[in-house]
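hey can u check if this looks right to u? its 322 residues, i copy pasted from the old doc so theres a chance i mangled smth
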Amino acid sequence: MTYLPQIRILVPSAQVSSYTTGSFNLPSARGAFFDGYPNARGLFGLGNDGTYSNVIDYVTISTTGNATDFGDATQARDSRPAAVASSTRGVFVGGSTSTFQNTMDYVTIATTGNAIDFGDYVVPNQTFSGAGSETRGVMAGGYDGGSTRDDYRYITIATTGNTTSFGTMNDNSSNNMALAGSTRGIWAGDYPNSTQIEYITIATTGNGTDFGDLTVGRCISGTASSATRGLIAGGFNGSAYLNVIDYITIATTGNATDFGDLIETGNRGTTGASNSSRAIFNNYNADICYVTIATTGNGTDFGDLTVARVTGVALSNGHGGL
């Protein structure tokens, strides 16, 4: 009789997935080994600090404290560029100086250093936003100097190159806000006070589908997400700057629900980033605040950016699309 060696896999019961082979369960990568991105970084970049800025700051999201200089973008610009990120690389897209820009540049998030050219957006574009997965970043809407746009475009984050057509939004949209869950990308708001929310499936291509409505119409809000829940914070409603935070359950459809308030009023051009459990937001001044995504409640002070600025952008290597 021949005896074959036995291999045993010991997995805590709370981490066992529903996938089985033979007489034992195999853990999913996200379930058994996913650590919640405890060292995930949030990067705040570009914007206007009295002039066009190329500054990129970073923080460790799970801690508190002031931001640290990361490096410089290839080109100073403001006016709400878009940004997308994988667990290793962040890409800053578009924006404007005295003219509209189609620049895309990238950084390796775990290190520090200056950005490197990635490719070009299809046209010079500003006031738009991006969301994505570990492999794909999708940008949508914006204003190209002649018209408000309604197109989705994507890149493969691990490579370099120009954008590719993805699909069409439900309507033209500028100053919108985007976030990602485990499979979906969500876009919300429009200038000056739209309540619209729509979604796409990031891994495919196609047009946006209606999701629901925000609790109050607005634009230029900050966003953050876990794999299951998305937060939309602050913004402008056409007459006033807001401190309201909404949340949605990304895998469903339906209207947003009130989450709490940011610590600051007058939140002009809020930006946001997240790991799997915490969201951080910055607004017009240098202040950063945080909330716990799975709960509801008001923001708590986190620290400050290296310099106050407005109409920049944020990204992280721990967001809900990874």
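The CA atoms of residues 275 and 319 lie 5 Å apart.
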